[in-house]
Amino acid sequence: MKTKHADPSRRRFLAAGGGALAVAATGLPAARVAAAVADDGTRPRPTPSQLRWQREQLAMFVHFTVNTFTGREWGDGSESPSIFDPKRLDAKQWARTAKQAGFRSMILTAKHHDGFCLWPTKTTKHSVASSPWRDGKGDLVREFTDACRAEGLDVGFYLSPWDRNAKVYGEGKVYDDFYIAQLTELLTGYGPVVEVWFDGANGEGPNGKRQAYDWARIHRTVRELQPGAVMFSDAGPDVRWIGNETGSAGSTCWASVDPARVPRAGADDPWTGEALQQGDPYGKVWRPGETDVSIRPGWFWHPEQDEKVRGADNLLGLYFTSVGRNSKLLLNVPPTREGLFHERDVESLIGFARLRESMLATDLAAGAKVRASAAQGEAANVLDDDHSRHWSPGADARSGWLELEFPQGAEFDVIRLEEAIEHGQHIANYRVDVDAGDGWKPLAWGTTIGHCKLDRVPPTRARRLRVAIEFAYAAPRLARVALHRSPTGAWKRPDYHGE
Ligand code: FUL
C-alpha cells in the first residue's frame, strides 16, 4: 500500500487540469488557448537521466525478503533471520530471464518494511549476515548487481523508509542517520545505480512511533552519491507513481506535474490516483509516471499463487496500458523460496517478449510516402526510429497534419505515435483518419502522446492515413508514426488485460 490519497482536492485538480483540456477539445481557436500557456522554451523537459529512464520502457522489480518464507506481504519486523535460506539462489537466472524478455534494468528490494537487509550492512544485525544462507557470508545485493551487469542490465534499489524492525524508528534524527547510513552503503558499495525507489508507506515502528522522514536529506544523499540515478516516490522528485498497482496509466498521461500539488515526497498528500495517472499539462516540472505492477497477485512469492501468474497476452495488455500510455512498466517478478524465478513466470515473460517483438518487428508504415501541412524537418523523419530526428509543422505552430500514403495499402490494428520528448511534451489533442479508397473516416483520437502512445483499433486497411495534431501547447514534434499488427487480437477490448 502506498500513501493514501485523501479525496477533497480531487475536484480541484480536475477543475484546473481537466478544464484546460476540455477547452482545447472544444475546438476553440488554438491561439486563444495557447495565450494562457507558457511558450515553448519554458515548458518542462526531461533531464538526460529521465530521458534514459523512459526510453528503457521495461524494468523488472524483484521483491524478495523474509516474507518469501513466511508467506506474508508485509513482515512485522519480528521475523528471525534464521528463516532466510534460499538454497538454490541464482541471481544470474533472474538477470538472464530479464534480459531474454527485453527488460533493461532491475530493481531489488534491498530492504522491505520488515527491515531485513539483503546485504551485510554495518547498521543492524537484522540482515543476511545473521541468516543460514551462504553460512551468513552471503551478500545478495552483490550477487544481484554482479548478475545484472553480466547481462548488461542497469540496477536500482528499493530501500523502504518504513522499518518495522529498527529500534530507532520514530526517533527523529537517530533514525534518519541510520537510514542514510544504509542508503550510503548501497549507493557507494555496488557501482552505478540508475533508480532509487522510495515507497510511500509510513506506519508505526516497533516502539509504536512513526517517523517523519527527512526527505530533503535523503534526496541530497542520492544526488551526491549517484548523480545519474532517478528517484521514484509517489511524488517524485524525478519519477512519480502512476497512482495504482493495476498496471494502468491514464489514457491522458502528461509527464509534467505541478509540484504545488505534491507538497512532500512520500507524504500524505492530496493527490488522487487519477491525478497521478494523468499528470498536468500546465505542470512546471517533468516527472513522468512509473507503472509498478506484479506478475502475480502479491508482490512476494506465495506457492498458492503459482496458478495465478499473468499470461503472456496479459503482460502484453499491461504493455499497452503503461508503455503505450507514456509511462514506463516496472513489472515485479518475485523469486521463490529456493531463490529462483518460478518456471511459470519465466514462461510468461518469454512469451510476452515474443508477442511484443513480433508485433513491433513489422512496421506497416515503412516506405510510405509522407506529406505534411508544413514542415520544419523532413516529414519522412517519422518513419524511422532515430529519435534525434522528427517532424514539426514549425516553431509557432500549435496544430498541423501528416499524411502517409501506402501504394500497396496497409493493414494494421495498432497505431504507434511518439513525440520528440527531449523537447518537452506538448501535444494535447490528435486524431487519426484513414482512407481505404472511399474517402476519409475517423479511426482514433487521443489527448496525449508523449514518449509513446499505442492505440489499438479494429483491423483496418488503408491507402492513406492522416495524423492531425489538433492542438499542442507549444510546437508539436512527432518523432515516430508506425503501424503494427497485434499478435493476439488485443484490439478487441480497450482495456484488454488478457483474461
Ligand atoms: C507498496 C509496498 O507496501 C508493497 O509491499 C510493495 O513493495 C509495493 C511495490 O509498494 O507500497
TrEMBL record:
Coiled coil: none annotated. Pfam families: Alpha_L_fucos. Gene3D superfamilies: Galactose-binding domain-like, Glycosidases. One of its GO terms (molecular function) is alpha-L-fucosidase activity. One of its GO terms (cellular component) is lysosome. One of its GO terms (biological process) is glycoside catabolic process. Residues 347-486 form the F5/8 type C domain. Its EC number is 3.2.1.51. This is alpha-L-fucosidase. It comes from Pseudoxanthomonas helianthi. The lineage of its organism: Bacteria, Pseudomonadati, Pseudomonadota, Gammaproteobacteria, Lysobacterales.
